[in-house]
Input
Amino acid sequence: MDESLARLVVILGPTAAGKSELAIRLAETLGGEVVACDSTQVYRHFDIGTGKVLPAQRRGIPHHLIDLVEPHEVFTAGEYAARATQAIADITRLGKLPILTAGTGLYLRALLEGLSDAPTRSEELRERLRSKALAKGPLHLHALLTRIDPQAAKRIAPRDTQKVIRAVEIRMLGGKPVSEIHRSGRKGLEGYALAKIGLLPPREALYARINARVQGMIASGWLDEVRHLIDEGVPREAKPFQFIGYAELRENLERRLSLNAAIESIQQATRRYAKRQLTWFRREPGVNWLPGFGDDPTIVTEALRLAHRD
RNA sequence: GGACGGGUGGGUGAGUGGCUAAAACCAGCAGACUGUAAAUCUGCCGCUCCUUGCGGGCUACGGAGGUUCGAAUCCUCCCCCGUCCA
Output
């Protein structure tokens, strides 16, 4: 492999597979720093439920791209890509090895492959479209998209209002059909030799670990965290309150849901999330899949070998 | 011992003679996804066969019989569960 390229290790896999732990181990032995690729960990104050590695557990390894914005702010894949590119360059310049822990497929793709030059989201336009969808039904918006951008409409399910709105937005703000914009420039990350390591524990074991992890989060004060967020006035519409668990626990605090029911529902949502992550990552090219958890010694050994090989 | 109510596919549960392999929901599986992505959305979901078709066969609504051209649905007996009375 090209000696002039800087190395970049990417650890990807479903939630609870042990990405963070593996990243720290690799960082310790290879002289690296961790860069999170996780859409939820960029939010400050939402710590336990998002599975952040807290400073005390980082064993001196710097962690980047965590706690970037306040709960009421909107964060986007494009912004992530820009900041991650910067962080990776900075780490490399210091002579350290950047190690990405990727749970959010879209963010990883935005970073590695880049995004097309499409307009960023416009809250005003979205508000208009959303109320229209509410008044006339989700299919109405799709019909509108079919009129202004038939190609894009064909690729989006009529009821997928979120994606329909995005397509309409691109078409209206960008002045060109979505397909045309997507065909144009897409600048990905360049200049790095990638080592992609995928964690793929057996499904049953993964689910068991997810269940246990949710219990563990509760035991370590997740409810207090949520109570505190509410007391601090974080509005219920704030984006991070959509993350798995936060809505359920708020309901529990409002006495509308028993703790057991909340826990079960969180475990279930997390299992489904893990499945969606696996579906996404399966298509990721060039991944070296390891059949176990990131804290398993044999997996660590394998991962070290893969991280070295370039 | 008596009186009711009930036993349906992995779960909850609708169906009360043919349009029913059996609604709906959940779980599960598979998939899509270029700025909300821990989001949003789609498909499959008894077994099996093939020429993959609104295709064929088999099995299925507690058990065993019966009525009927036809039964998850009606009748008989039995088993189990719940509530109430003794």
Notes: The longest strand of chain A covers residues 192-199. The radius of gyration of chain A is 21 Å. DSSP finds 13 helices and six strands in chain A. Chain A has a mean pLDDT of 94.
